[in-house]
Design brief:
Elements: H1 6-16, H2 21-33, H3 50-61, H4 68-79, H5 84-87, H6 94-108
Length: about 110
């Protein structure tokens, strides 16, 4: 059985409760990282997955831009794409993208 950390669990639960991918991730880390209330919007950047947008937003906000390329490469390795439209065709659930992304942030930043 795979154990989720508390941030991955929180992000997945928020997503299951109806938050979009971007807002699920943002809200999972908002208090811990003192992110404020300016949430990124899903698919607002070239059709990218909301989870990708949120991770990149959080990394930039924290001055950790050096992790963006690594995150993108790992995401593509795991899921094949970065764009929402492509990801929706690959048979995985959006909750998987949210969980993967929350796990990445929590292991790299927290």
């Amino acid at each position: 059985m795979i154990m989720m950390n508390k941030y991955e669990n929180k992000a997945r639960l928020l997503h299951k409760a109806g938050f979009n991918c971007s807002n699920s991730l943002y809200n999972a880390f908002k208090d811990e990282l003192k992110l404020g209330n300016n949430m990124p919007q899903p698919r607002s950047v070239d059709g990218l997955c909301g989870a990708v947008i949120a991770v990149e937003y959080i990394l930039k906000y924290l001055g950790k831009e050096e992790f963006i390329e690594e995150y993108r490469n790992l995401f593509i390795k795991e899921f094949g794409y970065l764009k929402c439209a492509d990801l929706l065709k690959n048979g995985r659930m959006c909750n998987d993208y949210v969980g993967f992304s929350a796990s990445y942030i929590s292991t790299k930043i927290i």
